[in-house]
Amino acid sequence: MCWVVLQGVMITLCAQKYLLFLLSLQILTENVISGLSVFSPPVRALISLLYRVRRIFVILDWICEACRLA
């Protein structure tokens, strides 16, 4: 029973590793850029927007893959 739960958790983490990587990279980048105060607010907003757009495409790819496997 425990092995089945652990296997399910590992499959979920493998499926979401790219999304988690993008989210952690976005948090790191936003903290570095806001801490430097060198970049203007539109540039900071653009970086946040770029990460969000990329994550949307990753989620769409993930949904298409899940539909193909089902």
Topology overview:
Elements: H1 2-36, H2 41-69
Helix pairs in contact: 1-2
What would you say this structure looks like, in words?
- With 70 residues, this protein is mainly alpha-helical.
- It has one domain.
- It is built from 2 helices and no strands.
- 0% of the residues are buried.
- The mean pLDDT is 80.
Helix content: over 70%
Could you tell me the number of beta strands?
Answer: 0
Shape: elongated
- How much strand? under 5%
H/E element order: HH
End-to-end C-alpha gap: 24 Å
Domain module count: 1
Secondary structure category: mainly alpha
Tell me about the largest β-sheet.
none
Q: How many DSSP H or I helices?
A: 2
Organism: Rosa chinensis (China rose)
Protein name: DUF7733 domain-containing protein
InterPro entries: DUF7733
Domain DUF7733: 18-65
